[in-house]
Amino acid sequence: MTRQESEAASHRQPLVSLLDVNLSLGGIEILRNIKLDLFPGEFVCVIGPSGCGKTTLLRLIAGLFRAGDGRIIYRGKELTGPQHDISVVFQDYGKALLPWRTAAGNIALALEANGTPRADRPGIIAGLLEKTGLAAHSDKYPGQMSGGMQQRLQIARCLAQDPQLLLMDEPFGALDAMTRQGLQDELLAILASTGATAFFVTHDLEEAIYLGDRVIGLLPHPGRVAEVFDVPLPRPRHQLETREDPEFLRLRRELARFITLAEA
Amino acid sequence: MTDRALADVRPFVLPVALVTIAEIATRVSGMESYTLAPPSRIAAALFQAGSDGTLVSATLQTLASVITGFAIGAVVGVSLGLVLGLQRPLDLLSELPVEVVRAMPSIALLPVWMVIYGLGYKMEIAVIAFTTVWPNMVMTRAAVRGVTPRLLEVSRVLGLSYLQRIWKIVLPAALPGIFVALRLTLGFSLIIGITIEIIGNPQGLGSALMLAREGMDPGTMLALIVWIGLIGLALNAITATIQHRLFGHIAGYGARS
Q1: Chain B contact present for A249, CB below 8 A
Q2: Contacts of residue A98 in chain B, CB cutoff 8 Å?
Q3: Which of residues 169 through 188 in chain B touch A, CB cutoff 8 A?
Q4: Which of A126, A160, A194 is the last residue of a domain?
Q5: φ, ψ for residue A157 (rounded to 5)?
Q6: A146 and B CB contact within 8 Å
Q7: Do the domain assignments include residue A91?
């Protein structure tokens, strides 16, 4: 999406709106006055020093926490809990997958939860395994798969929810650089084909710029939105060309400045 | 001899040597004892008891009580453990009474059981069930508690219903831990069963053991002890095989508990 398009997007209805959301846990103020709109089809990345509430913010939007005050509006209604079309990719794929189910069985879990008719499941599962490059590994258990494959499997399970909104909490943080770049491109391709909105928490500044339409910078104590960076880089993105684009380098410098000041 | 063949033989070297030493020592010393017998006499007694049917019937009597008591203890204990593991308020309420009852050696309650059930199968089954309920319950509760919070979050995000969450997430995740409890309590059950038969149930292998002792027949007595040991070994081998079939082929599952 270009800058013109994302400006056009701002005139549409947001998919999610956070309206002055505050959250305290155990008497500690975690998030203060969060105002944030996510527009349909947008890819929003979140960066910030550790302890700035990135993950908490993601869990709020996932419906795993209730906001202390302020409201979260999802598709026109107040968000009160997890939604069938909001899915979460956790960083620790090893813990998020069921070790006693095969790759196909793990994807089936999402279909069992949303009541997909039994007869339709094998076709959907095969399609998702194909899409995530796991077609040959359908009968493998997570313990028999590499980290990259396990994370692909978790993404496949999330896609089985047919999500409008995909929340990702440092999903590639535990993977090596080569695997990470491969998965970044696969993720962008998948999102381009489904049109889902993405909310992506990361501590890797380049990853945030490479993937995002916008990068939200949070500051800690308490967590708050400090700066928003638009990313007017053309899509589809390319691991070499995009990363050498002068605009990419300019953004990387700005984000680095932001994070250095934040951590000072 | 190849290394492989040597490895196959190695576990048997020490037992065979000990049995041989025992045989030679008892023969050479010309020992006459009411409690000890040479291995050859033990083997002959085992064969005799096996062929005249007494061993088979005593074994069936013991196994019937042990397995019935174990099964009752397992069903009740695992069910209670699941409920307490899932329902925090109930768990807090039951914590003190459970700790008190659990700490009591079950054999100390024997007089009470004798009054209720008299001497016989019922009493043996009751004591085995009562003894095994608690470890099953406590270990099942711990296994349910030990289900990683991440998996419960996954089930919420995916929108699993409460029953689906228990059936598809909590139970399978807790199963390896529950299985450890079952293996442990099956071993307990045999110990308790034989003890009760020695003390108060005039049936089964424990009772046969006492008869042999009173009849001053150390050959038969030791043969029964060997036989009980073999039964324990067999029960353990069976459960180990089931455990391996269920969990052994899945990396990261079963090994956790």
Answers
A1: no
A2: 151, 169, 172-173
A3: 169, 172-173, 175
A4: A160
A5: -65, -40
A6: no
A7: no
Q: Could you give the maximum distance between any two Cα atoms of chain A, in Å? A: 57
Distance to chain A for B166, nearest Cα, Å: 13
pLDDT tops 80 at residue B88: yes
Tokens coding B45? 């007694």
Tally of domains in chain A: 2
Contact A98 B172 (CB under 8 A): yes
Beta-sheet pairing, A214-219 with A224-230:
antiparallel
The amino acid at residue B180 is V
This prediction has a pTM of 0.81
Query: How far apart are the C-alpha atoms of B227 and B238, rounded to whole Å?
Result: 16
Retrieve residue A112's tokens.
Answer: 């069992």
**Structural domains of chain B sorted by starting position, each given as residue range(s) with its CATH number in brackets:** 41-248 (1.10.3720.10)
Residue A8 has pLDDT above 70, yes or no: no
For the segment A210-245, what is each residue's pLDDT rounded down to a tens digit?
999 999 999 988 888 889 999 999 989 999 999 999
Distance CA B252, CA A94 (A): 9
**Which chain B residue is nearest to residue A106, measuring alpha carbons?**
B168
